[in-house]
Design a protein that fits this description.
This protein is an alpha+beta fold and about 130 residues long. The protein has one domain. About 30% of the residues lie in helices and about 25% in strands. It has a five-stranded mixed sheet with strand order 3-1-2-5-4. A hairpin with a 2-residue loop joins strand 4 and strand 5. The longest helix has 16 residues.
């Protein structure tokens, strides 16, 4: 399991880096689901009048178990059998879900920058 301070540092860096792409008045809250096996699932909700708050849920046994606590449409069924490595993204309207393994390099400031670039680049395709 990553320490809360490491996870919080990543969230702060992620929020700082993505803020320049958001219009004024758009907030980014984060629900954090830590996994005992390492890593965490981060559910960012984006929208107007959303406070930049962070909420830590009860620790789960695995990333799959943590993901099962979140209402999302990408994965269904028994999520305990899923194995995640690196950083995985789920993009939904007004929500970004990051599934991150416990590798230290996935929780660095450069990882936050890389993750924001992957999100922004994906959403800017075809935009002129």
């Amino acid at each position: 399991m990553k320490s809360k301070s490491q996870v919080q540092r990543y969230i702060n860096n992620f929020r700082r880096r993505i803020a320049r792409f958001l219009r004024p008045g758009i907030g980014l809250s984060c629900s954090i689901y830590l996994a005992r096996t390492g890593g965490a699932v981060l559910e960012f909700k984006i929208g107007p009048e959303i406070e930049n708050d962070d909420n830590y849920a009860t620790e789960s046994n695995s990333l799959g178990s943590a993901l099962s606590q979140i209402k999302q449409r990408a994965f269904g069924g028994n999520l305990e059998g899923f194995h995640f490595s690196g950083t995985n993204f789920v993009m939904e309207p007004n929500k970004i879900i990051l599934i991150k393994d416990g590798t230290s390099s996935e929780w660095s400031d450069s990882a936050a920058e890389r993750d924001v670039q992957r999100i922004v680049h994906t959403n800017q395709r075809g935009v002129r």
